[in-house]
Known about the structure:
Layout: E1 5-9, H1 14-25, E2 31-34, H2 42-47, E3 56-59, E4 62-65, H3 67-77, H4 89-115, H5 118-139, H6 145-150, H7 152-162, H8 165-168, H9 174-187
Parallel strand pairs: 1-2
Antiparallel strand pairs: 1-3, 3-4
Helix pairs in contact: 1-3, 4-5, 5-7
Amino acid sequence: MADEIILLDFWPSMFGMRVRVALAEKGLKYEYKEEDLRNKSSLLLEMNPVHKKIPVLIHNGKPICESLIIVQYIDEVWHDKSPLLPSDPYQRAQARFWADYVDKKLYDLGRKIWSTKGEEQETAKKEFIECLKLLEGELGEALLRRIEAECPKLIAWTKRCMEKESVSSSLEDPHKVHGFVMGMRKKLGIE
């Protein structure tokens, strides 16, 4: 029996993009269902009754919620193809730590950048750059030109990632995402 895989998602979601990249890396075919987050589907509410958020991966009728958990699930279930996480337990723990850091720190600061203005926005931009610098140091080796100027290793790593078909074909056009964010800023009365 073939696996039935459904992804409930919203196109500009960085969390959904993470799952789409993982599915593409594993070469998995899935049904994509776009969610309207202002009018959530009964399927989303049924599959994620606790948080009522995307993304949700439905594998053979069973829901898996939260993007990091979904990525780990994908890696464990389809372990015979393209490992997503290191096999060494310490390196795997470090990868999970930095993914959690991105979720907790960068996401919140990114949201502050696009949902505030003035001094609060400038403070968020500075904190965002500092977080990127810390992340860049850990990666060992784009939003704004400032990021490229201040975090060249991170930008180089991003460019290498974008050369992978599984990544480039899974991510949304940055101009489209920017347009969406600018529209949200107008709706919030920020622009």
